[in-house]
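Open question from group meeting: does this chain pack into something compact, or does most of it stay loose? Before anyone orders reagents, we agreed to write out a predicted structure and look at it together. Recording both the input and the output here so the notebook holds the full record.
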Amino acid sequence: MHSTPKHPPKGYLSSKLASSARLANHIFELVSIYGISKTLHRKPAIFIEDSKYHSLVNGVRKVMPGLLNEFQIFDRPVFPEAKNELISQKCCVFDNPSKLENITSKYLHLTGHFYQNMYSHSKNGLCRWTASFFERYIY
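Structure tokens returned:
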């Protein structure tokens, strides 16, 4: 039996991912988006914009498949009706995502680049996702 979430998802949360970055950056960014999505009661999403996004997803899937299981992956660019919001435009400064809670658009797309301290909703998941990687490759 599935438990009922405290708040049903209000829609999807995605971000302009740094698709040309390296694996550690991808993981940091996706875990941050996951944490922000939990704060905003949204389902985290990835929109496959081009082949670099396919590489990003494939690379993360190899080491942390559980992380990607939390995301809705759309094999298409971001929907034109998505609400674009700039958040976290400066490095090392926390930009509270709660300020976006009242946005009602089904698709909320973040256009910032620096997500600081967004892990409060991700701690248990991080342990689970990392443990599955270590069990597979280390033990």
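Observations to bring back to the group:
Residues 12-137 form one domain.
The longest strand covers residues 43-47.
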